[in-house]
Amino acid sequence: MRLLAYTSPARGHLNPIMGPLLELRRRGAEVHVRTLASQVEAVRGAGLECEPLDPAIEAIVHDDHRARTQIDSGRRSFATFAARAPLEVADFQAALEATDPDAVLVDTTTFGAKALAERLRLRWAESRPFLFEEPAPGVPPFGLGLLPRGGAAGRLRDGSLGALNGWFDRIARLPAVNAGRGAAGLPRLDAVAESRNRGDLTLYFTAEPFEYPRRLPANVVMVGPGRWDTAADAEIEIDLPADQRPLALVACSSEFQDDGAIAATALAGLRRRWRLVVTSAGVDPAELAGERGDAVVARFLPHGPLLEEADVVVCHGGMGVTQKALAAGVPVCVVPWGRDQLEVAAHVVASGAGTRIGRRRLSPTRLAAAVERARGCRAGAARVRAGYEATGGSATAADALEALAAPDRSFR
Hints:
By secondary structure, the protein is of the alpha/beta class. The chain has 2 domains: 2-224 and 391-405, Rossmann fold; 233-389, Rossmann fold. The protein has 14 helices and 13 strands. The strands form 2 sheets. A 7-stranded parallel sheet has the order 3-2-1-4-5-6-7, with helices on both faces. Strands 10-9-8-11-12-13 form a 6-stranded parallel sheet, sandwiched between helices. α5 links the parallel β4 (103-107) and β5.
């Protein structure tokens, strides 16, 4: 079997698929990856064939951190995906010609690559590292961070706010979908609902109870989150303070969204009560104001070893770090900063796996209180962890991809 995996230029979209890809390689498959340039050597070091995306795609960067509202943030994100889509068509075509794969795994935000896979009638799977936006009975409208509410009041709320989602689909999501389809030579779609799960398979990198109970399409397979750390990350030694204080891992976004205030507030509010490890990622540690005491502060550190000792994780609510923490049974305190993070925070609270605090209410005192409450949510985090493990994880994903590549596949 020969597989081509094509990602968007973001670590949060590469890391989840690495477990399944490495499992396929272990089984003897030939695996090729196209991803962001900074991660090419790490992927090669893991044993996979890898080349960078077209640099012009990476040059189109998100500017959603400039948004003043959640709607404007989402609109800016989808405008970025739409601008990348025409470049993806040519880049993905070149990757196909270079690798001649039996099947392809394409990231959910690469609208140009997905459209080309459809036009060429490839055996293709969609990698879904985000929560589903699709409406469903009992599931709140996506993007507002609402908790599920039953009864007539819940149905009324969800129905009225669902209209807002429909409007956003028309002004933001649908143009990105059709930018990819137009560049690939496919007809435009009239509704976002028509664009969903069009591949033979969707690998959905989550599971209940983190995901709300809902009926999923037959071609969607939940496989839990990814937990991959690069070999280079794993070799980093971290000198933790040696005392009896609980350990908090504080993580900012790996893709810049100007969320350094989370790290700075944690340093101000937690460093005496907690042993702190801060990974500032998209923010230069030198730009973090305030005293650090014995806190460990670095741009990138491996999360895996830290999660073995952490009592709580404080983060922006990215799906990657949030689910990685919960997969280790560690509760989280989420300060959602933008993008899909309001939804992630709501799912954390609904599953009993942690707490949330709004970015406009963020202060050292409030964060300290929210972190203490999160520490008491270990039982909820354990339930989420068990749900992830029940999916079979990378083995289940690899099984599905092998079935997709088989001549007698039966996904459709």
